[in-house]
Design a protein that fits this description.
Largest sheet: 6 strands, parallel
Distance between the termini: 41 Å
Helix content: 25-40%
Strand order of the largest sheet: 8-7-6-9-10-11
Number of domains: 2
Radius of gyration: 19 Å
CATH topology of the largest domain: Rossmann fold
């Protein structure tokens, strides 16, 4: 299939296929839109079942980054990269240096950072071959705490709008995926008195949140449809689909995972069922917001104050969706498109 005919191709400006036989690197870099500035987005490492699956992920994720940066008020465009491989056994210095070289070949059109399967040490190896790297220990570091804080603030906004409450105390929250972001999210939720149901394929991660936050462990296949107030998907995407959606019992879907809707039509399906959806690229923008503040004058407090604005952005989207009688995902798309389809001078890079 031609990339241009791919069902997730959305006028992407550039798609680069990266192959380095010596290191075993097979990767894809997708740049969706740079109207507001150079593309910024993480690198994901995952054992994709096929190259076609990897391409679909890269196209969807990079498009989401365009919308994410626009609604976060950042002077960046949308890009993303994926490496085909198992992050538990396929990592090597040679592989990440090769990836860094490919990023560098784009001349600054794309800046890479962490995503699923990629850690700070990994991007620091890439940084040996390119200056276009964010999220290193010399900068903002691991973006997971910021992402989790933004999701927490977004959940509070959703609870306020849908449930009419300012506190999460006593609410049942199902967190799917308790790795880096999911763990930090659980810490915020538990501190406010929420009751946690959790699921993950990694038993060590489950043991940690169960021990520290008195979380109830649920089977991975049952977490999305548990009887809870809020479902927070924090692993891979597409958990809102034709199979799961009719079984959802939560009143709110709000989590850190990218591409939570298997298809765009599922946003309207959630609305029809009275389930409030916090669009993923809005609620999970904390990491890229903090990274956008990197520089010699990096101020963590200022960066996290910016992250907290996710709360108000979501309230605006919820109000727009209600007024227009459309899905929250549609309202978010419209607001983002108003921003990134305008001249780049309208946006200002955080510093």
């Amino acid at each position: 299939m031609s990339v241009f005919e791919h069902h997730e191709f959305d006028g992407h400006e550039q798609v680069v296929f990266c192959h380095d036989p010596a290191s075993g690197l097979k990767a894809i870099i997708a740049i969706h839109n740079t109207n507001l500035g150079p593309a910024l987005g993480g690198c994901r490492m995952w054992p994709y079942a096929s190259e076609a699956e990897a391409l679909t992920d890269a196209l969807r994720l990079s498009r989401g980054m365009t919308y994410k940066s626009a609604l976060a008020g950042l002077g960046f465009g949308g890009g993303k990269s994926v490496i085909i491989g198992d992050p538990r056994r396929d990592k090597s210095e040679a592989l990440f240096r090769a990836m860094g070289s490919y990023v560098d070949s784009l001349g600054g059109r794309y800046t890479v950072a962490e995503d699923v399967g990629i850690s700070v040490p990994d991007v620091e190896i890439m940084a040996r071959e390119t200056q276009f790297v964010a999220g290193t220990s010399k900068g903002a570091g691991d973006p997971s705490p910021a992402t989790a804080y933004g999701v927490y603030m977004g959940i509070k906004a959703a609870a306020k709008h849908r449930l009419g409450v300012d506190s999460l105390s006593g609410l049942r929250v199902a967190v799917q995926g308790v790795g880096h972001v999911g763990y930090y999210l659980c810490s915020h939720l538990a501190a406010e008195g929420a009751e946690l149901l959790v699921a993950d394929i990694a038993t060590d991660s489950l043991d940690r949140v169960q021990r520290e936050f008195d979380a109830h462990v649920v089977a991975p296949e049952a977490i999305a449809t548990s009887a809870v107030d809020i479902y927070a998907p924090c692993a891979l995407g597409a958990t809102i689909n034709d199979e799961s959606l009719p079984k959802l019992q939560a009143k709110i879907v709000a989590g850190s995972a990218n591409n939570q809707l298997a298809e765009a039509r599922h946003g309207e399906a959630l609305r029809q069922r009275g389930i409030l959806y916090a669009p993923d690229y809005v609620i999970n923008a904390g990491g890229v917001i903090v990274i956008s503040h990197e520089g010699p004058a990096y101020d963590e407090a200022k960066a996290f104050t910016h992250v907290a604005k996710i709360h108000d952005t979501l309230l605006e989207i919820f109000r727009r969706a209600d007024a227009q009688k459309v899905a929250t995902s549609t309202a978010a798309d419209r607001l983002a498109e108003e921003r990134f389809r305008k001249p780049a001078a309208k946006a200002t890079r955080a510093a």
